[in-house]
Amino acid sequence: MEFIILFTSLIIILIAAELFVNAIEWLGKLLKLSEGAVGSVLAAIGTALPETLIPIIALLSGDNVHANEIGIGSILGAPLMLSTLTMFVTGCAVIVFKKKRKHHDKVMVNTENISHDLKFFIFAFIIALSCGLLPENFKNLKVFFAFILFLSYFIYILKLVKEPREENHKLPDLYFSFHEKKIMKHKNIIILVIIQALFALTLIIISAEKFVDAVTNISILLHIPAFVLAIIITPIATELPEKFNSIIWISKEKDTLALGNITGAMMFQASILPGIGILLTNWSLTNFSTILSALIAITSASLLLLKLKLKGYITVKMLLSCGIFYLVFLTLVFLGIIR
Q: 111, 154, 169, 176: which could join 196 in a potential S-S bond, CB 3.0 to 4.6 Å?
């Protein structure tokens, strides 16, 4: 039964992801937003909700040390998957769909947008990590940095939404328009776009929760160690929306949307979530594994940014190389250094 739930929820997430990216592209068009803003803001925030809710619920569930550790660990650990494994999967998607793509295995992305995202992510995540290393009696300073994180995300979004919209791709029909979009009024289209986006997002959140529950139950049945489940399997499952969205956009050669979906989610999880965590907890890092996981994410993002600056473009090899850092992470897990 658990395997049926697992595969059913996986299929539903995939279908919902297609509905979601279709609605988000239309919403971006109606709001006259650039591809960078659509991928890094609208899509990123939407698909980041499933894994965003986990640490917030943990922090609000109780005022005990265990709940705080789970919340802080989830917040600082979340970007690890995006900056390593999800980048690797995106690179693999380029290779898989290269025959279908006009530019084959070349990554046709707005490098300025991706560079902008990575810079803000590194800046915000270093602040979030540094705050956790401050003594507990520096609470006022930590709160100050929390508002710096909120402000940085506001500035980040402001720059993106001011960018002019490019008309590089023809949009497919909106699924919920039932092929009547040509005769529908603008206000009716935007209502349908919002309904489709919310419907898809609801399906993603519910199915992602069912998927994680099924993975957990199967892991128990197969006697998979709890630390492997907590550090490896569950994070991979919760990042499914970003992975699927990016794969769909890669297959359609909308690379800026695909990578922006990842880097935008990274920025959201490096600024807004830590800011909330700082306000709700003492935000003290006592877990070496959490610190090490965050440092791996920062290193992966920094090297990707460095290569982007040196070359001026992104290659498949650069995306695949991010997988090395996930391999390092797995090695540290199985050596018992991260647990």
A: 176
